[in-house]
Amino acid sequence: MNSQRHLRVVGDAAPAASPTPVAQAAAARSALVGQLLVRVGHGDEAAFDDLYTAVAGSVFGVALRVVRDRAIAEEVAQDVLVEVWRNAARYRPEAGSGRTWVLTMAHRRAIDRVRSEQAHTDRLRTHGAKVAGSHDDPDTVVDVAHREWEAQRVSEGLALLTDRQREAIDLAFSKGFTHREVAASLGIPLGTAKARIRDGLIKLRDAWEEER
Questions:
Q1: More confident residue, 176 or 142
Q2: 6 within domain boundaries
Q3: DSSP letter (8 states) at residue 170
């Protein structure tokens, strides 16, 4: 009797809910990122272009939430995307989703940048307190000096690029354009736009690595 009652209860239980279309789409995107990472790890440049399209916006968003400065977030995003290109072979699908792997890298890079900026700001604050007049606010001196230093660093990095690379990078990061939007804006083939952005990112990364 108890067994029959138990069977009826089990039989009347509601079926497990199916994933929503939104959840299914998110899972598909995550799976695609993992597949692209594997291909990038084998040196597939076309896969990197597709990977950029899939994750660049999210990478920038993660960086911006951490550093809270658009210019620095753009630089962090550029760093991360080049790091992905160089280290994709280290990605292991069994360890987790590709999207999580990329965004974790972005978060760590952004945290590192915040710490680096804080150390730099502390040095500027010490110097600013020494040189500021008695009626000057040392924090104001620091803010101005820091903005000037950051602007100079980004400007020097962009100066290393060709004009075509620079305008493509500017559209992609400053204005948030996709590859297709960059291509349409510049009147060039999609593949050319992708190549300019990729080559420009690598050149910037190399220059900033030399500074460290």
A1: 176
A2: no
A3: I
